Amino acid sequence: MSTDSKCVDMLQEIETLCAFEKRGPTKEGERKAAEYLKKRMEEIGLEAKIEPFKTSPHYYWVYFLHMALAIALGAVSLITRPAWVPVLAAALLCLVLLSFWGDLTTKFHIIRNLIPRFPSQNVVGHKRGENPRKHIIVLAHYDAAKVSKTVFNPELDEKIAKFFKEKFNKTPNVMMPMIIAMFLLICVSVARAVASAGKAMWISTGVIQGIASLILLIAAGAFLDIGTGHYVPGAIDNLTGIAASLSIAEDVARNQLKNSDFTFLATGCEEAIMMGMVEYMKRHGKDLDPENTYFINLESIGGGNVCYATSEGFVRVRPYSQELISIAEKLKENGDFPEIGTYEVRMGTDGMVPLVRGFKAITIISVNENNIVPNYHCSLDIPENVDISVTERARDFALRMIRELDAKTSAG
Hints:
alpha/beta; 2 domains
C-alpha cells in the first residue's frame, strides 16, 4: 500500500505502521517503523533524523527484580541476631524502594542500570518558525506494548475501571500498593532492629510482613506474566498519536508557525516506562528553555471521548502546565470543542517526563465512559477497531492549541 506524500491519511498511516510486526521496545519492528517515520517526516517537509540510544527496555523484569529483592530482604529481617542484620535489611529495602520510586518518576534509575541495554531510537522532525521565540514539541510513541492474557484482560480491566469510576470517579493507581508494601517492610525491619524480643512485636510485624509480601508476590507474578507474553499491534496505543502528529506536522510544514519552532518527536521505548523520552531529555533537555518550550503529548486517541490531562503521575500526581490547560479550557468554553473532557492520568505517559523536569507539558488522550482506553494493551488493538473520527478530533484540538499558543507568542 503506497502512501501519498502530499496528504497524510491517518488511518492508512496506522495500517502501514501496524504491518511492522513485534514493534516492541528495541525490537526489529520498532527500528523499521522508525526508518519509515523518518522518511514520512521528510516527505511532508520536516528536517528529520534518527537519534539512536541504548536502554534497558524490559520494565517487567526490572520491576520483577524489585519485588523479589523486597520480599527476600523482608525475610532477612527475621534474623535479629546479630542486631545489624535487620538494620542492613532495612537499609537495602530503602535502596530498593528508592530505585522503584526513581524508575516510576523517570528521574533516575538504579537497579534498571544493572540490566543489559539494547539499541533503540527516537525520530525527530523539525520545522523552524519565521521568528521563533518559543519551541513547540508534539510527541507520540510508536512502539507497542508486551502483554499477557492474565494481567491485561480487557473484560477484567473494564470491570475494575468501571468500579473505580463509579466509586471514586478516577482510575486506580496500580503502582502505589507496591510502594506502600515496600515501606511497610522497612518499618518491620526497623521495628525488629529496635525491639527484637516480645510476642506482641513478632505478631504485629509478622502480620504486616505477610500482607506486604503477599502484595509484592502478586505484583511479581504479574510482571512475570507480562514478561512471558506477546507484543500487541498497538493501533490505538499509540499509532493514533503518531498518525495525528504526522497530520499536524504536515499542516505546520504547509502553514509555518510565525513565532515558534516546531518539533515532531516520535519516541521509541515508551512501553519501557518512557525510556525513549528519558533519553531525549538527557540529550536535549539542557538546551531547551523551560519557560519557552512546550510539550504536547498525543496518547491513545482512537476511541471514546477526547480529553486533556490536568495532571499525571504513577506516584505523585503533578499538575500539567496551567498555561496549556488555560488554552485547552478556552477552546472548550468558546464552543469550538464543547465535548472535550478532562482526565487525571494515574499511570505514565511521555508527557510526564518533561513535566517532572520542570517543563510546560500536557497530554491529550481519549478514554471511554469508564475512564479507560478502549482495547488497552490487548490483541484487539488493531486498525479495524480505531475510531478515526476520535483521532481526527484530537488532531484538530491539538492543532488549535498549537496555533493559539503561537498566536499568544506574537501577542507578547
